[in-house]
Structure formats: C-alpha cells, structure tokens
Design brief:
It is a single chain. This protein is of the alpha/beta class. It has one domain: Rossmann fold (3-Layer(aba) Sandwich), CATH 3.40.50.300. Helix content is about 25%, strand content about 30%. It contains four helices and seven strands; from the N terminus they run βαβαββααβββ. It has helices spanning about 10-20, 40-50, 85-90, 95; strands at about 1-5, 25-35, 65, 75-80, 105, 120-130, 135-145. Strands 1-7-6-2-5-4-3 form a seven-stranded mixed sheet. Helix 1 crosses helix 2. It is globular, with a radius of gyration of 14 Å. It starts with a strand and ends with a strand.
C-alpha cells in the first residue's frame, strides 16, 4: 500500500493526472472517502492525464458520466445514492466495473465491494482521508489484472 500526502486541491489533481497518464485499458479506480474529501478533484486529474477535453462533473444524480475525448474512454461513476451491490447491478452499472472498455473511476466504491486480490479486473483501491482544510492522506493499493 502506498501513501501520498496532498497539501492542496492542485496537488490532488496532479496525482490523478499522473495516474491518468499511466492508465491502461480496463483499469478501475475505486475511490473511498467522506463527502468533500477530494474524490472528484482526483477524478479531474485522472481525466486530464487521459487527455479528456470535457468539463468533469460529479455524476451524483446521473450515476455515470462518460467522456470519450481522451486517449481512452473515461467512465465516472458515483455510487453514493446506491446502498448495495444488487442496486448497482440493477442500475446497469456492472458493465463499467467488470473489465470496462476504457478507464472507470468510481466514487463510493465501497457500495460495490471491497477489492479482491483474485479479481481479473485491474483495480486501484484508493482511500482519501481529510486531515484538515487543505491536507489529504491518499492511500492506494492495486489488485487483480
């Protein structure tokens, strides 16, 4: 498990941008953290690293936003309004979580499940902990793939 301390929204986006540049087809990046922790900020950086041109918005009410202008499609999911794995499947979101045709970033990944080491899908599980107004502790670990 790796840990990164971000001291600003700009630094959080820069970390995401690095991940976006390194991302490969089928990667799922699962984000966990309280409201306001920086999940959407990190996603904006990932999008920039992928070369996405559109403005990145939180898909809280849409559940998923698709961006296809980058070198790989980006699927941005927000599971906050769903409570169980069955609700995620019922909403038709499983296709984005199991071997996606691009890169998927999932806010509130814990609503799907905890990552499994034996998964065939490449998953980066990320926990963002707000230390204070500006600082974030971002821990992450890769599974599967």
């Amino acid at each position: 498990m790796a840990t990164h301390i971000s001291h600003s929204a700009t630094e959080t986006e820069a970390l995401g941008e690095t991940w976006g540049r390194e991302a490969t087809l089928g990667l799922v990046i699962g984000l966990s953290g309280d409201l306001g922790a920086g999940k959407t900020q990190l996603t904006k950086g990932i999008a920039r690293g992928l070369g996405v041109k559109e403005r990145i918005l939180s898909p809280t009410f849409a559940l998923v936003n698709e961006y296809r202008s980058g070198r790989l499609p980006l699927f941005h999911l927000d599971l906050y309004r769903l409570d169980t794995r069955q609700q995620v499947i019922g909403a038709g979101l499983e296709q984005y979580l199991v071997d996606p045709e691009g890169v998927t970033v999932v806010e509130w990944i814990e609503r799907w499940n905890e990552p499994r080491r034996d998964s065939c899908t490449k998953i980066r599980f990320v926990r963002i902990h707000q230390l204070n107004e500006t600082d974030r502790e971002i821990t992450y670990e890769d599974f599967g793939g």
